[in-house]
Amino acid sequence: MNEPPLTSLIEDYRLRVEKALESYLPSVSEPPERLHAAMRYAVLGDGKRVRPLQVYLTGESLGVELSVLDGPACAVEMIHAYSLIHDDLPAMDDDDFRRGKPTLHRAYDEATAILAGDALQVLAFSVLSRPGPGPGDTRSKLAIIQCLADAAGTSGMAGGQVVDIEATGKVLSLGELEQMHLLKTGRLIQACVKMAALCCPGLPAEVARGLAQYGRDIGLAFQIKDDILDVVGDSRTLGKTTGADQALEKATYPGLVGLEAAQNKAADLAGSACAALEPMGSKADRLKELAEYIVSRQS
Predict the structure, then answer these.
(1) I want to staple 181 with a disulfide (CB 3.0 to 4.6 A). Which of 155, 223, 271, 278 is the partner?
(2) What is the number of other CB atoms lying within 10 angstroms of the CB of residue 121?
């Protein structure tokens, strides 16, 4: 029996996580109505859903039931959405558009945007801590919560954002730029892989190590591709303004090493990510397809 193409699977998982997010997000009929409406505005609708997709495809490759993966997939997307809300604020990048529509602070106001981001961050961990489908033992559940917290905090996304801010207008070394990208973007994407693996207790050590390396390499490749798309992408396709990195004098791979070298680096990382999955054999085929998708995407 032929398996569906990756594009079809991406859409299936996008619809699945959208439905799950819809159920987890508070209703606009519940007070505070405006805050709940803002949270839903920021999360639901258009979005690549690459992070939930990474959770689902990793779990699928390990034989984990999809219902077990819904919580981690939604939690990481909520963390991602909160980070975008705060990243778009005037105090940060001051962006007007996100996912093809006005950014949250433009559609509502700055105070509501800040609070919506705060609430989404808390809700992500609430989702992971709830009873229901998920790892059967408390130790695995706590490990998943810890994994996401580490990836989102000062040793991950938040810390990387600080490095990004402090690097504005400066020339970083290649090592410094790579470390910034690994923290700001890579750690959260790597956490997607790790959380799915933690849903499968007793995983062989070599498989766990391979998945961790895959997640690291794909996380860095994803950010490099984002840097590339900011230079060569189409605003209508991306759903956000291109050229913003250069306008804000941000450190990027194309800016430091040139466009061709950045493209080669992303491709090399995708290759090393796939090589790390060899202990899984053919079970990793979908993850390898995803690696190729990440570095070849146009949005």
Answers:
(1) 223
(2) 19
